[in-house]
Amino acid sequence: MAAAATAAATSKSALRKLCIDAVPLTGRRVLCRVDFNTPMKDGAITNAQRIEAAMPTIRYAVDNGAKSVVLMSHLGRPKGAPDAKYSLAPVARKLEELLGKPVTFLSD
Predict the structure, then answer these.
(1) Residue 85: strand, helix, or coil
(2) Which of 15, 29, 59, 60 has the smallest number of Cβ neighbours within 10 A?
(3) What's residue 98's pLDDT?
(4) SUPFAM superfamilies this protein is in (predicted)?
């Protein structure tokens, strides 16, 4: 029992979250896993709440000297092959609008 408790305590300490404001960002590439699984209709975003929720983190990285900010996400549940209806291109356009900066979009 004691060994299990020790292992659990070790696991918890090893999984401490690191906040973006605790890391020097100047000149670094920043990788963020974001939830941009936004509702869309006919290729247009119908609710940008999830994109807007990520903006403080993205802006923080940009404003604090990150060389680049790479955002990773998914949309919907594609069945093993790329499908245009699940493209994040509309999200990239919305990000450009919100950031006021160009966003490079890389497709699958």
Answers:
(1) helix
(2) 15
(3) 97
(4) Phosphoglycerate kinase
Residue 1 has pLDDT above 90, yes or no: no
Q: What is the mean pLDDT of residues 10-30?
A: 82
Entry pTM = 0.78
The continuous run of DSSP H or E covering 69 comes out as strand 68-72
In this structure, are residues 75 and 38 in contact, taking their beta carbons and an 8 Å threshold? yes
C-beta separation of 91 from 45 below 8 A: yes
For residue 92, pLDDT beyond 50 = yes
Nearest to 51 by CA among 36, 33, 67: 36
Structure tokens at 34: 């974001």
Give CA–CA dist 77/104, Å, rounded: 23
